[in-house]
Design brief:
This protein has 6 helices and 12 strands. By secondary structure, it is of the alpha+beta class. The strands form 3 sheets. The chain has an 8-stranded antiparallel β-sheet. The longest helix has 22 residues. It starts with 6 loop residues before the first helix and ends in a 22-residue tail after the last helix. This is Endonuclease domain-containing 1 protein-like. Keywords: Signal.
């Protein structure tokens, strides 16, 4: 899934290692407590290790909004992890696309920023995607991992519009089966999740890239996948919905055709990803597979 890192990636890693954990920085070697609230049991997925991967606490307007594991070599998020907010599904459309300054330099602000006008080639382009990477790309468009329709607060919605939260998706897949399933999950969690729903949405890649100026720039996902965990749910929900709690998952092929989305158990998704991408044999999305200890049951 991940490319071999070279000097540029090493520089990013060395710079990021100097960051101070906590509120001072959004690119963190170890996620701070205020950022772990977006993860079930405060624990990120395990079994994903690579020198080019950086943990980003996605901050906007003074607050952390969600967490992303970002590949600075392939210029795509490996996954974004967030807590679902009950939402009517409306989109926020008046937001400029943003980038993560601290992927480039430790002296930058700890919050995502809008792309400056006429920025040309600047150092942040080495470590992350930029708007020009998606220009004149006919077959693909920017697809969210943390979709704004799964958020309610306007600032939470706005924070999803960073290029560190999007990947190239085939338009037919993005506006078709994948978007439809984001709607399905929103309705399900709106109606039957009574507590916090933790969601992790990620990708697999196979080496195909968006190229700009004859340079490989942005990895194209082969599959999109997502899993949620909600331990406090409506036990009186209809069976066809109730058996998909406390956790369930889905995935789909990022293609113009034959791109249906399949719902499966989290365990089956983990087995699928072990066979489809570079993850450790101990790869796990949720601690204890989202099975809470007896003392935590409602």
């Amino acid at each position: 899934m991940f490319t071999t890192w070279a000097n540029a990636g090493l520089l990013v890693v060395l710079l990021a290692d100097f960051l101070v954990d906590g509120a001072q920085g959004s690119v963190e070697k170890d996620l701070s407590a205020e950022c772990r609230v977006f993860l079930y049991m405060g624990t990120p997925p395990v079994g994903l290790e690579d020198h080019s991967l950086r943990k980003i606490c996605q901050r906007y307007n003074g607050k952390p909004r969600f967490v992303t594991l970002y590949d600075t070599m392939d210029h795509v998020p490996v996954y974004s992890a967030y807590t679902f907010k009950r939402s009517d599904g409306e989109k926020r459309v008046d937001v400029p696309w943003m980038f993560e300054p601290q992927l480039a330099t430790v002296s930058a602000t700890g919050e995502m920023q809008a792309f400056p006008r006429g920025y040309g080639h600047q150092n942040f382009e080495d470590a992350q995607a930029v708007l020009e990477d998606y220009d004149n790309v006919v077959s693909y468009e920017r697809g969210h991992l943390n979709p704004d329709e799964h958020q309610a607060d306007p600032d939470d919605k706005a924070a999803t519009y960073t290029l560190t939260n999007v990947v190239p998706l085939a338009r037919e897949f993005n506006i078709g089966p994948w978007k439809e399933h984001e709607h399905i999950i929103r309705h399900r969690l709106n109606n039957y999740c009574r507590g916090t729903a933790y969601v992790v949405t990620g990708i697999t890649t196979s080496g195909h890239m968006i190229r700009r100026h004859n340079i490989d720039r942005v990895a194209i996902p082969t599959y999109m996948w997502s899993a949620y965990c909600c331990i406090n749910y409506d036990h009186n929900a209809p069976y066809e919905e109730r058996y998909k709690f406390p956790a369930f998952a889905y995935y789909g092929l990022n293609a113009r055709e034959n791109n249906q989305v399949l719902e499966i158990s989290v365990k089956k998704l983990e087995e699928f990803l072990k066979g489809s991408t570079f993850v450790d044999k101990n790869f796990r999305i949720f601690v204890d597979d989202c099975v809470p200890p007896p003392s935590a049951l409602p």
